[in-house]
Amino acid sequence: MHIKILGSGCANCVNLEKATRQAVDELGLEATFEKVTDYADIATYGIMRTPGLVVDDEVVLSGRVPTAGQVKDLLAAH
Amino acid sequence: MTTATTDRRAATRRWGLLGAAAAAWVGAYALNEVAWTWLYRTVFGLDLTAGWPSMLHFFCYDTIKITLLLTGIIFIVTVLRSFMSIERTRALLGGKREGIGNVLAASLGVVTPFCSCSAVPAFIGFVASGIPLGVTMSFLIASPLVNEVAIALLLGLFGIGPTLLYVGAGLVIAILAGMVIGRLHLEGQVEGFVYETRLRGQVVDSTADLTWDDRLAMGREEVASILRKIWPYLLVGIGLGAVIHGWAPADFFARYAGPDNPFGVLIAVAIGVPLYSNAAGVLPLVDALYAKGLPMGTLLAFMMATVALSLPEMILLRRVLKPRLITTFVGVTAVGIVAVGYLFNAIL
């Protein structure tokens, strides 16, 4: 599983990454993380509100910071 | 137990809790000032017309009052806004011509949930999908200028009239500023990569399938996150307000920045821009200054300048806008704010 965190580096993306790492740990998944901070790259995902969460090149969430539990649901559904 | 029964029980519980919270809110709001007055006057035997007891009393009840206002109104606004998204805004603006487009963009800027960290991706998303630069700027100006924290506090401190004036003035500034920027044809002042960006993939509207529980949870999270962010500004603002309230001689501010000073509004905007704070920090001050005789237009201009023209946001926008366009944006918005200040001073 390849996970990308999209955002310029403000508190929201830091919190999103924290929640996602926790969710990955709790689910016992194998995942690689990548941070996308370049605005041109972020825009190519069609995201207009940061932070964004991309799993295997598919946008699963944008514009809000979920709890670890919510990320678990998103990853499980993926 | 069937799923329908479980759903019904969950709904009863959810709306019951919300109703109880609303009742507690109304009770606390109604009793707040009375309770502090009783504590200071009857229990401690203090004279509330004197300097420091009056200041302390003001500080305590104003802190509670403003926290309550922020909690209630931010919660309601966030839940309502969860029905609106920036993706939907872009779809609504697509293909609209300037003029109508600016009016729509400014109105949507007020109601669409949006934080300043997203100013750049939103700008790229709008411009790359073909929405005119001026229309995009109307949206970007209205969004911070007409701010839910400011609405909450104005409504609580000054009532509906000044709140409507504030919203109306913010809309007019955003519409006109966007139209001016559109007319100046500054498209060359946008960084090239914005136009080269290819939007691909499916646009995800993250608010499309939210349940009521999600929306209410978003309201709670937003209240917590805003209060966590602004409490130091809030306490400093209320503290300064309390000092002005309790100690400043009644005619001090009126003499220097009152209705008779033709430069009052200009001075207010010049002080407001670099003093970047947020509405929560500025409004308790505005309230205290109003009580000391400063005119409403000057105060609104001061407040708008502090919240709308912030250096951190300009630095963010520099990633997509060249300096000349940023300067134009600040200049046009500042002129609008000054004009609104003088207009309100003249008509109120």
TrEMBL record, chain A:
Report domain Thioredoxin-like fold positions: 1-75
Q: Does the keyword Disulfide bond apply?
A: yes
Task: Please list the disulfide bridges.
Answer: C10-C13
Q: Which InterPro entries match?
A: Thioredoxin-like_fold, Thioredoxin-like_sf, THIRX-like_proc
One Pfam match: Thioredoxin_3
Q: Which UniProt keywords apply?
A: Disulfide bond, Redox-active center
Q: Where is the active site?
A: C10 (nucleophile), C13 (nucleophile)
Q: What is this protein called?
A: Small redox-active disulfide protein 2
UniProtKB/TrEMBL annotation, chain B:
**UniProt membrane topology term:** Multi-pass membrane protein
Which Pfam family, any one of them, does this sequence belong to? ArsP_1
Location of the protein in the cell: Cell membrane
* Principal localisation: membrane
- Where does the chain cross the membrane? 54-80, 230-250, 262-283, 289-311, 323-344
Q: Which GO terms describe its cellular component?
A: plasma membrane
**Alphabetically ordered keywords of this record:** Cell membrane, Membrane, Transmembrane, Transmembrane helix
Looking up InterPro entries in the UniProt record yields: DUF318, UPF0718_permease
**Annotated family:** Belongs to the UPF0718 family.
Q: What is this protein called?
A: Permease
